[in-house]
């Protein structure tokens, strides 16, 4: 049986204020084309279908179109809700939609009820574990503690209990949306820490043949049978080095050597490459080695000791798709590295303001004209305050 594992579509999300709906539509076109080109038997979507609980209408329309196309392809799809989704909204009409071969698993009460498919080697039971918020599902699952590890362990107990009652040789697949130990996060995942602990051990999933994970945006293999597909698009510059893919997994017959007989990473369309560049502004504008990034989405970190004038306008002349600007000034020789709070001690308002301006622009002191502007501002404030006090 051939499975296509994907996750974290985040339909409706933007990238530094750049809309991604067109790129997300291109990915879904690619997904459907992949289903046909590789004779996929089932599609697995491991959560975060949408980017927020109440997605914008264009994102809902795109999702609806994708469901119709997958149903028309006649390929079963199993989909769970993630921590960005509203499980109840995503699950509306699940019973009716299931008749078209789209299996939405958003209710924790259905964890132990798999979607059962068959091939030449027998049955494959696919269990959907939606994102489990510990405080909300602990009692329903009978978990010992209110933590991610405890509720996932309770959920997997239900999976294993159901699997134990099935015919010998039944292969098993679990879809889950969680932070599993060993996975490498990026800046674009929402924190799901509970009680200081977010990650759960891979051993929680012992006893099943393949675990299709969602939540982390980088494609990664925690073990041959436990994998993240990652997001199909980059949603932060921390993903600049990611290769965005889906997993194509072949399940053979059940046996002592495992059931996975093939695994291939299939690349997703890239709407525009990402680049992170760093240096002084003039160097970035003149460096010929940066020519390949001129049409990329760019995050630029400027190291000029003094903040240059109109840096974004100047950058976009060479890099028109610059989206994010960071200032990390080089330290001057007299910069002791003392914290800003330490430099405030025993200083007048005027001195504090001068110190602040110098601090944020890398240690460069104010000139006479700048000091005069600050002095005038403080003087105006003092006069205004005095007038207000008199008028009370």
From TrEMBL:
Keyword set, alphabetical order: DNA recombination, DNA replication, Endonuclease, Exonuclease, Hydrolase, Nuclease
GO molecular function: 3'-5' exonuclease activity; endonuclease activity
Ranges of residues in domain Nuclease SbcCD subunit D C-terminal: 271-359
GO biological process: DNA recombination; DNA replication
CDD domains referenced in this protein's UniProt entry, alphabetically: MPP_Mre11_N
InterPro entries linked to this entry: Calcineurin-like_PHP (IPR004843), DNA_Repair-Maintenance_Comp (IPR050535), Metallo-depent_PP-like (IPR029052), Mre11_N (IPR041796), SbcD (IPR004593), SbcD_C (IPR026843)
Domain of life (superkingdom): Bacteria
Ranges for domain Calcineurin-like phosphoesterase: 1-217
Subunit structure, interactors included: Heterodimer of SbcC and SbcD.
Function: SbcCD cleaves DNA hairpin structures. These structures can inhibit DNA replication and are intermediates in certain DNA recombination reactions. The complex acts as a 3'->5' double strand exonuclease that can open hairpins. It also has a 5' single-strand endonuclease activity.
Family recorded in the similarity comment: Belongs to the SbcD family.
Protein name per the record: Nuclease SbcCD subunit D
Origin species: Streptomyces sp. R44
